Amino acid sequence: MKDAFGAPQSLLVLGGTSEIALATARRLIALRTRRVWLAGRPSPALEAAAAELRGRGADVRTVDFDALDSASHEAALGKVFAEGDIDVVLMAFGVLGDQARDEEEPMAAVRVAQTNYTGAVSAGLVCAGALQAQGHGSLVVLSSVAGERARRADFIYGSSKAGLDAFAQGLGDALQGTGVHVMVVRPGFVRTRATAGLPEQPLATGPEEVAEAIVTGLRRRSETVWVPGSLRVVMAALRHVPRPLFRRLPV
């Protein structure tokens, strides 16, 4: 449950080494979040992230989680919820893929889709069910503006995010009145390890800016958050650009 100051006391991160997720966890810990679960594949990076957050005063545990192993999600995440209520679940796992390679290797493209969409559907439904059973909580889903309209440059990744976004919106509608809040976060280009070396896009942000938007959105119980906020207007315009012209735009 949230504390007397309205801050969540517990957080579950799916994708425990995500730079955006860890920036968000730091902000929430500073706001009195005291129990954090980091779910991800066992690795030195996951343990280092847990140790860093412990140094900030939180009780941090890790749990083995593989987005591609949907059959294991119910058992893995069930262990977390069995230890006590979770106020916020942050679904932050995903892969960018390599568009050129993935077009040549269909199974590589399938892996992008399975990670970003299929794995998210499985984990999202498991967490939504657990949150609904406890009667409260927020599910935060990291989507992307790439899902708003397919671009030649990254349509495989974009299509997976489009599916995720639609799923999360529908899930939020299905959970209306249950006490569970679903928030879809749509960042633009974010400067992270995953995007290092890629040409920077207009309106680029960093993990800290996305984290700030997430925390603000949680406080306001927003349903959709754009990062930066101006992207909402930009994408509203781009959505209606005729395809022949859209193909030629440097976006």
TrEMBL record:
Keywords recorded for this protein, A-Z: Oxidoreductase
Q: Specify whether Oxidoreductase is a keyword of the entry.
A: yes
EC numbers, comma separated: 1.1.1.333
GO terms for molecular function, please? oxidoreductase activity
Task: Report the SUPFAM superfamilies cross-referenced here.
Answer: NAD(P)-binding Rossmann-fold domains
What family is it from? Belongs to the short-chain dehydrogenases/reductases (SDR) family.
Would you tell me the protein name for this molecule?
Decaprenylphospho-beta-D-erythro-pentofuranosid-2-ulose 2-reductase
